[in-house]
Design a protein that fits this description.
This protein has 241 residues and is of the alpha/beta class. Helices cover 37% and strands 18% of the residues. Bound molecules: uridine-5'-diphosphate (UDP).
């Protein structure tokens, strides 16, 4: 068994991460690569929960801008996360892994209903649980859903996979002199409006002393190195008292 610093991870994947080379939808090669990655982690003894976003398909706020009722738009967004979760479950199951989808919205013909107790049991039994439909409520994001599920399953670390390799003091794509943080606290991230994730999500992590790493996990092996305790990306923690 590998020496692990973090035994139980909650990995948050944005919907956009699943698009790969496409402008919309799901790239099967990304699902295959992610599934290989998660299999490697599981073989190393890491317990895994995964939250998937839906931004590659629908986002409620964008639909509302186009004239759709906001709550309806958010329901569409949550359904998008379920589609992504099913695709990932399929990829994992094709590799012979015990993967299930638990949704914050009930849809018994499609996937299982989320309950905290059952989710924890499945993860402790070595299954990978993919959490779909975010919090199950409109006006939230899957980042908040991820923080909530991470706290509920008592994850040791939440990993937010992004396109950039960590958190910078300003947008590294627009500003060449942007500086990357190795470590910041939630108060700083909120005060400086670093746009890492929404404030509700960060407050939940902070209040429950849940550490988070923001990193680019497109390179193979990153998640396992993180679980072993290697410093990758930016670590966000509660401010020391
Ligand atoms: N959503 C929601 N409640 C939640 C989580 C998500 O209503 O608890 C909806 C919301 O419309 C959101 C969409 O689902 O825009 C997709 O989630 P998100 O934008 O967080 O996906 P990501 O940006 O991670 O791909």
């Amino acid at each position: 068994m590998t020496d692990l610093k973090y035994k139980r991870l909650l990995v948050k994947l944005s919907g956009e991460a699943l698009m790969g080379q496409y402008d919309f939808g799901i790239d099967p090669s990304v699902i295959a690569q992610l599934s290989r990655e998660l299999e490697g982690l599981q073989q190393a003894g890491v317990e895994l929960g995964v939250v998937v976003g839906g931004g590659n398909l629908f986002r409620g706020a964008q639909l509302a801008e186009a004239g759709v009722d906001r709550v309806t738009g958010d329901h569409m967004g949550m359904l998008a996360t379920v589609m992504n979760a099913l695709a990932l479950r399929d990829g994992l199951q094709k590799r012979g892994l015990k993967a299930t989808v638990m949704s914050g919205l009930d849809m018994p013909q499609v996937c299982d209903r989320y309950t905290q107790r059952e989710a924890r049991q499945r993860i402790a039994d070595g299954g990978i649980v993919i959490f779909a439909a975010g919090t199950g409520c409109p006006y939230f994001t899957t980042d908040t859903g991820a923080s909530l599920r991470a706290v509920e399953i008592q994850a040791d670390l939440m990993v937010k996979a992004t396109k950039v390799d960590g958190i910078y003091n300003k947008d590294p794509i627009r500003f060449q002199d942007a500086v990357k943080y190795d470590h910041i606290d939630y108060d700083q991230a909120i005060d400086q409006r670093l746009g890492v994730m929404d404030v509700a999500a960060m407050i939940l992590c902070n209040d429950n002393t849940l550490d988070m790493v923001v990193c680019d996990m497109s390179e193979s092996g990153v998640l396992l190195e993180l679980a072993k305790g290697k410093s990758i990306g930016t670590l966000v923690t509660r401010k020391e008292a």
